[in-house]
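An instance as discussed:

___
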Amino acid sequence: MAAARAGPAELGFVEAAPAWRLRSEQFPSKLYAPLPDRADAFHRGLFLFCCRAPPCCAGLRVFRNQLPRKNDFYSYEPPCEDPPPETGESVCLQLKSGAHLCRVCGCLGPKTCSRCHKAHYCSKEHQTLDWRFGHKQACTQSDYLDRTIPDHSFLFPEFEIVIETEDEITSEVVEKENESEITGSMGEAPEEELDSMAKLESKEDKIFQKFKTKIALEPEQVLRYGRGIAPIWISGENIPQEKDIPYCPCGAKRTFEFQVMPQLLNHLKADRLGRSVDWGVLAVFTCAESCRLGIGYTEEFVWKQDITNTP
């Protein structure tokens, strides 16, 4: 791993506006992370995927894509940020060009409904699911596919993630928090007991306390971005060593770029103990050279740290 740089992280917070989609058994989270000093990475995206079922949690995958400003996919000038004028017509939700996508998960959809020939699916399983959850009744409605988004009960909710720069936590704030914790404890336990507890304080406790202190100013953060900075770990267990982070196929080391926080689980409503996806920290490491890809994607590396029984 490249040496971590100092500096504040960019924090991500959930907002209600639908701008990223968490769909089907997997959730794709797209992070737009261009490199200002790289013409070939004017557009640069990171895509994190994970199965929502616990047996497959080890199957976390992250991919990187980057393009120059002039390319065959995006306009050279940025899109207008002002909302389009209201015409009274509903927005068409179907793509008018490009590959057909599955109505359930958004993957390539080579299969077609034999009745309306308009709904596309990646598999028979997703076609059956969509049929059961509404397509059967609406199949023959001419504008149904253009005006509605499937609402399947197993899909994760959709959110926009807004980014803000982290305020630095000063040493005075940390000292004040530590003093208040000690003061509060002294009224509840004799001094000799506190001395004994202090001797037994483990590295695990210190790391978890550091995690809590770091996020104390912004407890709702769901994402931390900072290419080349150090991640914050929730536990002293299962922290990767340099040898645990594989090199990029181009031969360059990988460096930390962003992490997904456990607070996101609350928004995903992944609360079925033992039956839903779970994590303490998801730390994503990418090629330190952000090697050229053409128009393709390359797989990067994600490290999953679980939450332990930390006091």
Helices lie at 124-138, 144-147, 171-186, 191-200, 203-215, 264-268.
